[in-house]
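FW: tagging you since you asked about this chain on Friday. Here's the raw sequence from the shared folder, copied in full. Didn't touch anything.
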Amino acid sequence: MKEIPFNDFLAKYQAGEIQVVDVREQEEYDALHLDGVTLLPLSELLDRYTELDKDQSYYVICKSGRRSARACQFLEEQGYDVTNVQGGMDAFES
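HL: got it, structure written out here
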């Protein structure tokens, strides 16, 4: 699985170069999120992953990097190009 350190991810995000999928739950997203990202909670991923474009590359983020790693593993198995954001939103808050 491809991974990226949070600070490298943040630079790409701020440059507007990337598509981001947040796999946290709605309440977590509402409390703190990055603008312009796609919310696709891990709990809904099995039912909704086909909403993502297989021709796009995605950076997947969660709170700490664990759920996003699980999401990346699943999405890779489905043929998606995904990169896990290490440290997740916890890294953003620190």
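FW: The CA atoms of residues 66 and 88 lie 8 Å apart.
HL: agreed, and The domain at 2-93 is CATH 3.40.250.10 (Oxidized Rhodanese; domain 1).
FW: great, closing this out.
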